[in-house]
Amino acid sequence: MHAGRLRLLECSAAGLAAQVFTARDAIAKDSIEDLRVAYILLDSAIETLMVRRVSARLIHGDLDPEPRSWFYRERDRIAIDLHDPSQRSRMEGSDERDDFDVTEFVYWRLSKTQLSDIERDFTSKLQFLAWLGDLDEDLVSVVSRLHEYRNEMYHREKTRPEALRALVHLYAWLTAEFMERLRPAWMGYGSDADEVRRGIYRRIGIQEPPERPTGFFDEDLQGMMASELRRSLDLEDAAEVFAAYVTSRVTSFHDALEFVGDYLATIDRSVERISEMDVVRRIFSKEFMGNLKDLRRERVSLTRSMISRWDGWSLEITSQVDALRAFAALAEFEREFEPFETEVQESAAEVDREIQLQIDIARGK
């Protein structure tokens, strides 16, 4: 193999080490600012690993919608369904068949849209790698959600400080998992790469082996980096942290409803006592022009049973067997809760502005 290509692989490992272990050092500082930097670096490392594996898988063009090789153009090829991660194993061979040792060879193809999405979109890369069998299906939704957190941090400066430490440690654990699952097909060294190799070990903070490996497979840099990264992680209380975070958000949700209810009590006397569901119906029945008493006959998208389920969701999180499943339960909660949370927060903000306006008017401003 050409020495330049081998050195490129070493430089790729060096770049990955720079991201991962700069993140590790930031995690050790344990401030909100450093944890935010670490999170963004870990997200970048995971995408780097995925880009490298995806590029290696697509390099021959056999999955292209219009393959370059006549060999693939003349085959009947089956469309890949990225939302069906079991499609490949199901069609290429099933243990349920009598002759399960015999595997059918299937020629696959991606559409132009799929190919474009895989090249540009984070979640599409996850789906493609899960379809290939390189990643577990369960990781797709979890890592995709963690990437959304990164976008919120980077573009909106939303950091979730109550849960950030546990989130960063979980993302670091997943980065180590990706380093082990998405290893390069080969690794070697060019004649001019000694300093690059030494730099990798210095950055990791461990002693460089006295002997340089002689073969392509004699040194597992990525596996070693994964092991070293895991040494600095603590996920023991992650489930409790995520549960407390959910409890805090649900409590704030109830507080916002109470705040709006106190205001409604000053302007609507149609009912003797305003309940939380009266407030919910007023917020989510914006087209209804009647009073609260009449509104009680209306049905809205947010129900009492949904709120009750959110009240108990923290127990669902703490019942999970590990941090990954605990976060999956948190992500499921957020998918259901956040649209309603946003509406309630916006209503509370509107009420606050109205109260402030009335105060300013009373003061003659």
Automatic annotation (TrEMBL):
<protein>
    <submittedName>
        <fullName>Uncharacterized protein</fullName>
    </submittedName>
</protein>
